[in-house]
Amino acid sequence: MNQLNILPPEPFNEETFDQIQQELVQRINLQNSFNKEDIRLVAGVDLAYWEEEGRTRAVCCICVVDYTTHEIVETKSLQDEIKVPYIAGYLSFRELPLILDTFNQLENDPDLVMFDGNGYLHPRHMGIATHASFYLNKPTIGIAKSYLRIQDTDYEMPASESGAFTDIVIDGEIYGRALRTQQQVKPIFVSCGNGIDIDTSTEVTLALINKESRLPIPVRQADLETKKHRAARR
User: Fold this and answer.
1) Model-level pTM?
2) Is Signal among this UniProt entry's keywords (predicted)?
3) Which residues belong to the annotated binding site for Mg(2+)?
Protein backbone atom coordinates (compact mmCIF):
# COMPACT_ATOMS: atom_id res chain seq x y z
CA MET A 1 0.00 0.00 0.00
CA ASN A 2 0.99 3.58 -0.58
CA GLN A 3 2.42 5.25 2.50
CA LEU A 4 0.79 8.63 1.83
CA ASN A 5 -0.45 10.34 4.97
CA ILE A 6 -4.09 9.36 5.34
CA LEU A 7 -5.07 12.33 7.48
CA PRO A 8 -3.71 15.85 8.01
CA PRO A 9 -2.73 16.99 11.52
CA GLU A 10 -5.59 17.78 13.86
CA PRO A 11 -7.82 19.70 14.21
CA PHE A 12 -9.65 18.23 11.23
CA ASN A 13 -11.53 20.75 9.10
CA GLU A 14 -12.92 21.24 5.62
CA GLU A 15 -10.05 23.46 4.51
CA THR A 16 -7.31 20.91 5.15
CA PHE A 17 -9.42 18.07 3.75
CA ASP A 18 -10.12 20.08 0.60
CA GLN A 19 -6.44 20.82 0.10
CA ILE A 20 -5.59 17.11 0.11
CA GLN A 21 -8.37 16.26 -2.31
CA GLN A 22 -7.40 19.07 -4.68
CA GLU A 23 -3.90 17.61 -4.83
CA LEU A 24 -5.10 14.05 -5.38
CA VAL A 25 -7.67 14.91 -8.03
CA GLN A 26 -4.87 15.94 -10.38
CA ARG A 27 -3.66 12.34 -10.35
CA ILE A 28 -6.92 10.61 -11.29
CA ASN A 29 -6.57 8.30 -14.29
CA LEU A 30 -9.80 7.39 -16.09
CA GLN A 31 -8.11 4.82 -18.30
CA ASN A 32 -7.47 1.15 -17.58
CA SER A 33 -4.22 0.56 -15.73
CA PHE A 34 -4.54 -3.23 -16.20
CA ASN A 35 -5.51 -5.89 -18.73
CA LYS A 36 -9.08 -7.08 -18.29
CA GLU A 37 -7.95 -10.63 -18.97
CA ASP A 38 -5.83 -10.50 -15.80
CA ILE A 39 -8.71 -9.85 -13.40
CA ARG A 40 -8.89 -12.81 -11.03
CA LEU A 41 -10.06 -11.50 -7.65
CA VAL A 42 -12.38 -8.58 -6.96
CA ALA A 43 -12.94 -7.13 -3.49
CA GLY A 44 -16.06 -5.37 -2.23
CA VAL A 45 -15.87 -2.85 0.61
CA ASP A 46 -18.59 -1.48 2.88
CA LEU A 47 -18.86 0.21 6.28
CA ALA A 48 -21.64 0.50 8.85
CA TYR A 49 -21.84 2.84 11.85
CA TRP A 50 -23.47 2.85 15.27
CA GLU A 51 -23.30 4.77 18.53
CA GLU A 52 -21.93 3.04 21.61
CA GLU A 53 -21.56 4.73 25.01
CA GLY A 54 -21.55 8.16 23.42
CA ARG A 55 -18.93 7.26 20.82
CA THR A 56 -19.21 6.56 17.10
CA ARG A 57 -18.02 3.12 16.07
CA ALA A 58 -17.94 1.41 12.71
CA VAL A 59 -17.23 -1.93 11.12
CA CYS A 60 -15.53 -2.32 7.77
CA CYS A 61 -16.15 -5.53 5.85
CA ILE A 62 -14.21 -6.62 2.78
CA CYS A 63 -15.34 -9.57 0.68
CA VAL A 64 -13.01 -11.02 -1.96
CA VAL A 65 -14.73 -12.86 -4.81
CA ASP A 66 -13.42 -14.95 -7.69
CA TYR A 67 -14.24 -12.93 -10.81
CA THR A 68 -14.90 -15.99 -12.95
CA THR A 69 -16.66 -18.43 -10.62
CA HIS A 70 -18.29 -15.83 -8.30
CA GLU A 71 -17.19 -17.89 -5.31
CA ILE A 72 -16.37 -16.05 -2.09
CA VAL A 73 -12.66 -16.46 -1.48
CA GLU A 74 -12.28 -14.47 1.74
CA THR A 75 -14.13 -12.14 4.07
CA LYS A 76 -12.52 -9.89 6.67
CA SER A 77 -14.14 -7.52 9.16
CA LEU A 78 -12.72 -4.99 11.58
CA GLN A 79 -14.38 -2.70 14.13
CA ASP A 80 -13.04 0.49 15.65
CA GLU A 81 -13.98 3.86 17.07
CA ILE A 82 -14.34 6.61 14.46
CA LYS A 83 -12.65 9.80 15.61
CA VAL A 84 -12.78 11.91 12.45
CA PRO A 85 -15.89 14.13 12.48
CA TYR A 86 -18.45 13.92 9.71
CA ILE A 87 -18.05 16.75 7.18
CA ALA A 88 -20.36 16.62 4.17
CA GLY A 89 -18.47 15.77 0.99
CA TYR A 90 -15.41 14.51 2.89
CA LEU A 91 -16.66 11.17 4.19
CA SER A 92 -13.62 9.39 2.80
CA PHE A 93 -11.37 10.89 5.48
CA ARG A 94 -13.62 9.35 8.12
CA GLU A 95 -13.60 5.91 6.54
CA LEU A 96 -10.10 5.50 5.09
CA PRO A 97 -8.19 4.57 8.27
CA LEU A 98 -10.51 1.67 9.06
CA ILE A 99 -10.64 0.55 5.42
CA LEU A 100 -6.86 0.41 5.16
CA ASP A 101 -6.52 -1.43 8.47
CA THR A 102 -9.03 -4.01 7.25
CA PHE A 103 -7.20 -4.41 3.95
CA ASN A 104 -4.04 -5.21 5.88
CA GLN A 105 -5.80 -8.31 7.22
CA LEU A 106 -6.47 -9.81 3.79
CA GLU A 107 -4.69 -13.00 2.91
CA ASN A 108 -5.53 -12.62 -0.78
CA ASP A 109 -4.49 -9.70 -2.97
CA PRO A 110 -7.45 -8.45 -5.05
CA ASP A 111 -6.84 -7.17 -8.56
CA LEU A 112 -9.67 -4.65 -8.41
CA VAL A 113 -11.71 -3.09 -5.60
CA MET A 114 -15.39 -2.06 -5.61
CA PHE A 115 -16.75 0.28 -2.97
CA ASP A 116 -20.28 0.69 -1.67
CA GLY A 117 -20.24 4.41 -2.48
CA ASN A 118 -19.20 6.83 -5.19
CA GLY A 119 -15.97 7.48 -7.01
CA TYR A 120 -15.78 10.10 -9.75
CA LEU A 121 -19.47 10.81 -9.21
CA HIS A 122 -18.73 13.40 -6.53
CA PRO A 123 -18.63 17.22 -6.48
CA ARG A 124 -14.81 17.13 -6.54
CA HIS A 125 -14.50 13.69 -8.19
CA MET A 126 -13.20 12.37 -4.87
CA GLY A 127 -15.70 9.85 -3.57
CA ILE A 128 -14.40 7.02 -1.40
CA ALA A 129 -13.64 4.74 -4.37
CA THR A 130 -11.39 7.36 -5.95
CA HIS A 131 -9.81 8.63 -2.74
CA ALA A 132 -8.96 5.14 -1.47
CA SER A 133 -7.30 4.15 -4.74
CA PHE A 134 -4.27 6.32 -4.04
CA TYR A 135 -3.56 4.38 -0.84
CA LEU A 136 -4.39 0.92 -2.18
CA ASN A 137 -2.59 1.35 -5.50
CA LYS A 138 -5.35 -0.62 -7.19
CA PRO A 139 -8.01 0.14 -9.80
CA THR A 140 -11.31 0.95 -8.12
CA ILE A 141 -15.01 1.30 -8.92
CA GLY A 142 -17.76 3.14 -7.05
CA ILE A 143 -21.15 1.40 -6.70
CA ALA A 144 -23.87 3.54 -5.12
CA LYS A 145 -27.37 2.39 -4.30
CA SER A 146 -28.79 5.93 -4.38
CA TYR A 147 -28.07 8.95 -6.52
CA LEU A 148 -25.83 11.76 -5.32
CA ARG A 149 -27.29 14.87 -6.95
CA ILE A 150 -24.62 17.26 -8.13
CA GLN A 151 -25.23 20.80 -9.42
CA ASP A 152 -28.98 20.13 -9.53
CA THR A 153 -28.38 17.56 -12.29
CA ASP A 154 -30.83 14.67 -12.37
CA TYR A 155 -30.17 11.38 -14.11
CA GLU A 156 -32.23 9.90 -16.92
CA MET A 157 -33.82 6.57 -16.03
CA PRO A 158 -32.32 3.75 -18.17
CA ALA A 159 -34.52 1.33 -20.07
CA SER A 160 -35.98 -1.52 -18.01
CA GLU A 161 -33.64 -4.23 -19.22
CA SER A 162 -30.45 -5.74 -17.89
CA GLY A 163 -27.39 -3.79 -18.99
CA ALA A 164 -29.25 -0.63 -19.96
CA PHE A 165 -27.63 2.59 -18.78
CA THR A 166 -27.66 6.35 -19.12
CA ASP A 167 -24.63 8.54 -18.62
CA ILE A 168 -24.69 11.21 -15.94
CA VAL A 169 -23.22 14.23 -17.69
CA ILE A 170 -22.39 17.45 -15.84
CA ASP A 171 -20.75 20.39 -17.61
CA GLY A 172 -20.08 18.16 -20.60
CA GLU A 173 -18.25 15.53 -18.54
CA ILE A 174 -19.36 11.99 -17.70
CA TYR A 175 -19.40 11.67 -13.91
CA GLY A 176 -20.94 8.19 -13.81
CA ARG A 177 -23.75 5.99 -15.05
CA ALA A 178 -27.21 4.96 -13.96
CA LEU A 179 -27.05 1.22 -14.67
CA ARG A 180 -29.91 -1.27 -14.73
CA THR A 181 -28.39 -4.57 -13.65
CA GLN A 182 -31.66 -6.54 -13.63
CA GLN A 183 -34.87 -6.11 -15.55
CA GLN A 184 -37.46 -4.03 -13.66
CA VAL A 185 -35.26 -3.27 -10.64
CA LYS A 186 -33.96 0.10 -9.52
CA PRO A 187 -30.74 1.19 -11.20
CA ILE A 188 -27.44 1.47 -9.36
CA PHE A 189 -24.96 4.28 -9.92
CA VAL A 190 -21.58 3.26 -11.24
CA SER A 191 -18.59 5.55 -11.41
CA CYS A 192 -14.89 5.13 -12.05
CA GLY A 193 -12.75 5.17 -8.98
CA ASN A 194 -9.30 5.38 -10.48
CA GLY A 195 -7.18 3.43 -12.96
CA ILE A 196 -10.24 2.25 -14.92
CA ASP A 197 -12.56 3.64 -17.58
CA ILE A 198 -16.33 3.90 -17.38
CA ASP A 199 -17.02 1.18 -19.96
CA THR A 200 -14.83 -1.33 -18.14
CA SER A 201 -16.37 -0.30 -14.81
CA THR A 202 -19.77 -1.12 -16.30
CA GLU A 203 -18.56 -4.40 -17.83
CA VAL A 204 -17.00 -5.61 -14.58
CA THR A 205 -20.09 -4.65 -12.59
CA LEU A 206 -22.43 -6.57 -14.90
CA ALA A 207 -20.12 -9.59 -14.88
CA LEU A 208 -20.54 -9.83 -11.11
CA ILE A 209 -24.34 -9.67 -10.97
CA ASN A 210 -26.43 -12.68 -10.01
CA LYS A 211 -30.16 -13.16 -9.53
CA GLU A 212 -30.03 -12.39 -5.80
CA SER A 213 -29.39 -8.65 -5.99
CA ARG A 214 -29.04 -5.61 -8.22
CA LEU A 215 -25.62 -5.07 -6.60
CA PRO A 216 -22.44 -6.82 -7.79
CA ILE A 217 -21.59 -9.80 -5.59
CA PRO A 218 -18.54 -8.38 -3.76
CA VAL A 219 -20.40 -5.22 -2.71
CA ARG A 220 -23.56 -7.13 -1.87
CA GLN A 221 -21.68 -9.55 0.39
CA ALA A 222 -19.75 -6.76 2.11
CA ASP A 223 -23.04 -4.94 2.69
CA LEU A 224 -24.63 -8.04 4.24
CA GLU A 225 -21.63 -8.55 6.51
CA THR A 226 -21.66 -4.97 7.81
CA LYS A 227 -25.39 -5.20 8.59
CA LYS A 228 -24.81 -8.47 10.45
CA HIS A 229 -22.01 -7.00 12.58
CA ARG A 230 -23.95 -3.82 13.34
CA ALA A 231 -27.06 -5.78 14.33
CA ALA A 232 -24.97 -7.85 16.76
CA ARG A 233 -23.92 -4.69 18.57
CA ARG A 234 -27.46 -3.57 19.32
Assistant:
1) 0.95
2) no
3) 46, 116
